[in-house]
Design brief:
2 domains; alpha+beta; nine-stranded mixed sheet; 328 residues
Length: 328
Amino acid sequence: MILTRSFLFAAACALPLSIAACSSNDKKTADVDAGQVAPEGTHYQYVVDQALVPVNPNQELSYGLDLGSSTSSKPDGSVDNQLAPVFTLLSGYNFPIQPTITQAVDRGSILLLADLQTTDLATAAAAGLSVKIGENPQPAACSSATDTTCRHHLDGSGRFSVAASSPANTIVTGTIAGGTFTGGPGNLTLQIALGSTNPITLNLVNARVKASQISATEMTAIIGGAVLETEFNTSVIPALAAQIAPILQRDCADLTSPPTCGCASGTTGALLISILDTTHDCAISPAELGPSSIVGNALQPDVCSTASCSAADALSIGIKVHAVKATF
């Protein structure tokens, strides 16, 4: 469930996340949950050309989906987007969350491919949406090293390969009614960017999708899912720490002189050092971002990844994406 505003002070000390994930608590969701369906029909292929993370309270709700409660993965009637207030608050501190992910998509650092299988784009009883990690865009994202716009692979005629590292069997199934696809639960994969445009893969469990404006050439979707706490702590946190180091080297002239570490006033590095460098050594380790840190306290699990839990074991995330026609 969405964090209350009493969490905001703690969230101010949260890690600098940027993403490469409209409630679904209606009858359509209940119908999908009654049993998985086998998708039928034509495969429509897309590439994500825009990925949006919530940067204000309204988007915290509209970019999230109902993923269940802390004790069950069954929808409970409330939107879940645990990471949303972190994005919102850091954006308020002028941390470039959305610009970073936009740049990652524009330059092809993040390549998300979507495959929608359905007999009809307006009404279908058995449809499925899978997400894959792409590579080798043709044309290339940028025409040259000096190309500052890029996005050439996102013109609706791009061709891609599916990366060998792309997880298999990442799909949600459901129905299409009134031109809206409602699917899940299932497993999906997202790429996000944390602190830099280098992508990090998130494996979402109990994932759900609500897609609209569906045509053969484009689609808009809300993607929500849960990241297991174990994966978040063992994969995301170390990757973030590794990506913070170059930011500190860029913005801080003397990383041997705490507490200011020579960071230029107003830079991202100065903000990170002031918030996260609890050991005052001009570096930010995984431990300073982990479960025992103030960051860990701000990012507690909120949803259950299975039918029943004694306590929440995953963190919910929801984003909005737009995709255009592609071939892969």
